[in-house]
Design brief:
The chain contains one helix and five strands. It has 103 residues and is α+β, with helices and mostly antiparallel strands.
Length: 103
């Protein structure tokens, strides 16, 4: 019974997360951003082995202002090399709320 309840809870939570993300994407504006730098972060994988993660700091312009953000997802440094340009989605009400477009 506990597993059924937990499963339902996860489905409901996933649905609300999906809806919130879709709403954000509907209002987001698209522009180009440039990878300014890659930052390393160290952690351990599920077996306790050291692992290196990479995060891109991206710069872009919106409304005549410059913005920077650190992407919240890890990146492949070969794809997101410093100086490369990639599509960015940002919230026009809060341009600092931005994400790299993937896929």
């Amino acid at each position: 019974m506990l597993f059924v309840f937990m499963g339902i809870l996860l489905l409901v939570g996933g649905y609300f997360f999906y809806q919130k993300n879709q709403q954000w994407v509907r209002v987001a504006q698209r522009t180009s951003g440039q990878v300014l730098r890659l930052e390393q972060d160290h952690d351990k994988d599920e077996n306790g082995a050291p692992q290196i993660f990479w995060f891109a700091t991206v710069g872009f312009s919106a409304g005549g202002q410059s913005y920077e953000f650190r992407d919240s997802r890890t990146v492949n440094p070969k794809i997101y090399a410093t100086g490369t340009t990639h599509p960015v989605l940002y919230n026009p009400q809060n341009p600092a709320d931005a994400r790299l477009v993937r896929g």
